[in-house]
Design brief:
The protein is built from 3 helices and 5 strands; from the N terminus they run βαβββαβα. The chain is α+β, with helices and mostly antiparallel strands and about 160 residues long.
Amino acid sequence: MHKVNVVYEKRALDPADRPEVEIRQLSPGDEDLFDHVADGVFDHGFDKGVLVAYLNSPGHHLIVAMHDGEIIGQVAGVVHRHPDLRPTEMYIDEVAVADQFLRQGIARRMLDAMFDLAKSLGCVDAWVGTELDNVAADALYTSAGSQSGMFRMYVFKL
């Protein structure tokens, strides 16, 4: 049996030493907040038109973590409705926190805010996929009450 030891280089801060962070749901009109985004929170740059379209799209939701006027984390989610009698679910598209704010409970707070929003929208489940070797994501999702399983994803270039 192979045992994996995981050592975090940066230990979690004592709660008293953590910076003040606001968790908020974004709405149309919040586009100017994207003038100040920490590195590593999103994979790509922004196009104002695409951002406006996203924030105005029914069923698309964005929860962010703000510190000193800067977006330092985000959880994106999409309400997934089915044409049959399967229940409505929230697909968690992405979870990210800037490196200097990791291990402070920010991702969990944003995820909990997305879960609360999803419940208010009639979702009965939420789901997210991640790489099988993503230890940090596995710890986050397990701490939020989920159990992992095998997952395979197929991507089609269109």
